Amino acid sequence: MALAIRDVREHDLDAVLALNNAAGRTILALDAAQLRYFYDHADYFRVAEIDGHLAGFLIALREGSQYDSPNYRWFSEHYPQFAYIDRIVIANAYRRHGLGRIFYCDVTSFAEVRVPLLTCEVFLEPRDDVVVLFHGTYGFQEVGQQRMGDTGPQVSLLAKDLPSYAYVRETYLDHGGLPDEPWLTERERPFHPDSPQRRLAGERRP
């Protein structure tokens, strides 16, 4: 079995959309325009490919986006810098094989050299104890709860401290930015010139 974790490509989008919308109640449905927004603006959008088949994907955004999500807005109101995992989806045929942990390791290595916190939410209605336990064992702690809209589900808002960030900031980010190394730059999504991320004061991107 050949596994590759790589940046999403435009030709993947139809398969990503189908996979997202077949995932069940704990993953919010998307339409093509919403997925295109992620393709154009997400800081991290990677897919898992197994033997040429799309096996899953993870999307994450940093602070400063115009993303209209109540959970993303909650983190924006409470933390100045973070990477927010909007969704992770694994195809049914590849679940319970460790792909979730592989994705979380990969997004952590992306986030820990850029921000002090990795954030996400888990649904409490319906509650999935496997998902709750997964995040707890991976170092996430609950920092709040909220209901998504007037009639939406209750969610637990989670954050994980990234202790490596302080060293990276003091050693690199405050002195010219990250080194121009493939393992750092390959996961950096392109930005529009007028995007909020480009306008953040003091921000340097590889």
Automatic annotation (TrEMBL):
<feature type="domain" description="N-acetyltransferase">
    <location>
        <begin position="3"/>
        <end position="163"/>
    </location>
</feature>
<keyword id="KW-0808">Transferase</keyword>
<dbReference type="InterPro" id="IPR016181">
    <property type="entry name" value="Acyl_CoA_acyltransferase"/>
</dbReference>
<feature type="compositionally biased region" description="Basic and acidic residues">
    <location>
        <begin position="184"/>
        <end position="206"/>
    </location>
</feature>
<dbReference type="Pfam" id="PF00583">
    <property type="entry name" value="Acetyltransf_1"/>
</dbReference>
<dbReference type="InterPro" id="IPR000182">
    <property type="entry name" value="GNAT_dom"/>
</dbReference>
<dbReference type="GO" id="GO:0016747">
    <property type="term" value="F:acyltransferase activity, transferring groups other than amino-acyl groups"/>
</dbReference>
<protein>
    <submittedName>
        <fullName>GNAT family N-acetyltransferase</fullName>
    </submittedName>
</protein>
<feature type="region of interest" description="Disordered">
    <location>
        <begin position="179"/>
        <end position="206"/>
    </location>
</feature>
